[in-house]
Design brief:
By secondary structure, the protein is of the alpha+beta class. The protein has two domains: 108 residues, no CATH class; 191 residues, Rossmann fold. A hairpin with a 3-residue loop joins strand 5 and strand 6. Helix 3 packs across helix 8.
Length: 307
């Protein structure tokens, strides 16, 4: 079977599945070892049957994980270095690739003991900035607005790999693709027929960002967490300190509910948070539930970034 090689989340990935969204590598295998292998194959019978019965996922923190996209494929992630894909008949290959790139690779990173943060990453002047927030808070819209300024470049969408490098925490580029909701795509005048529909219950499309992609690591400078509240009538921001800082970071980690409910936050992650506290600010930006305040949020981020 033909194999492909890519750079995804800064890792060298060898795959039996073609991944058009990812950055291809032509490096000879002998000169650079693979970090991750993606293969088609069988998975344990109990998991296969669970998927056929309609179950969605089984996750055991940092050792192994399995999830299922109905009618497309089942995925088993193990050892921080392998994703086994078992497709259903006539699968949606675009959705299969999307799930491998997002959930699959995020679980790989967790098994490698590296935290994965929820949010988009944009770069400016060599520094990385994360835009995070709850679903519907407007982080994708805000990110798109910021990227209209050529001073900003796109690094990652939805999930962010954080890693310690020379005593500093860096963000890694993922792959040149950004998810946008249908309404935003239409307002931007994007051709939906040229985009990949992401059926994750949120009516989103995958938008290719090769034109503005920053394919290098960058030191993390700030995190902006956006939320909506009925208790404010204008955009407000607050620089988080102490336990508010810690809780904000943990609550926005990928699979944060699993940490709090099942395994607890690993000590290595807590050490990273301590380092991060002295390196990067976290701001909570609150916008009203009603009205269009995207420009106000964007202006707030620009102000905070320039301080």
């Amino acid at each position: 079977m033909k194999k492909y090689r890519y750079k995804i989340y800064g890792l060298i990935v060898e795959s039996e599945l073609e991944i058009a969204q990812a950055t291809s590598l032509s490096v000879d295998r002998k000169s650079l070892e693979n970090d991750v292998e993606i293969v088609f194959g069988e998975i344990p019978e109990r998991l296969r049957k669970a998927g056929e019965e309609g179950y969605g996922s089984w996750i055991n923190g940092f050792k192994a994980a399995w999830f299922n996209t109905k009618g497309t494929a089942q995925y088993l992630i193990t050892g921080g270095n392998k994703i086994v894909v078992r497709p259903y008949p006539d699968p949606d290959e675009k959705l299969m690739v999307s799930m491998i790139l997002s959930a699959g690779m995020s679980l790989i990173l967790l098994q490698r003991n590296e935290p994965v943060f929820h949010g988009s990453v944009i770069e400016k002047e060599g520094y990385a900035y994360i835009i995070s927030g709850t679903s519907g808070a407007g982080k994708s819209t805000v990110t798109m607005e910021l990227l209209k300024d050529n001073a900003w470049l796109f690094m990652a969408d939805d999930t962010v790999r954080l890693s310690l490098d020379n005593g500093k925490i860096h963000c890694y580029p993922t792959y040149p693709q950004q998810k946008v909701c249908r309404d935003l795509a239409c307002r931007m005048g994007l051709d939906l027929s040229d985009m990949i529909y992401i059926d994750e219950g949120r009516d989103k499309f995958a938008y290719k960002r090769t034109d503005r992609y920053y394919d290098h690591t960058a030191e993390l400078k700030s995190i902006y967490i956006i939320n909506k509240s009925k208790n404010v009538c204008e955009v407000k921001y607050e620089k988080l300190q102490g336990m508010d800082y810690v809780h904000a970071f943990i609550n926005n980690l990928y699979l944060s509910d699993n940490y709090k409910r099942d395994t607890g936050v690993p000590n290595e992650f807590m050490k990273l948070i301590n380092l991060l506290f002295h390196q990067a600010d976290i701001y909570l930006i609150t916008r009203p539930e009603e009205g269009d305040t995207v420009k106000n949020v964007v202006d707030t981020i620009r102000f905070l970034q320039s301080c």
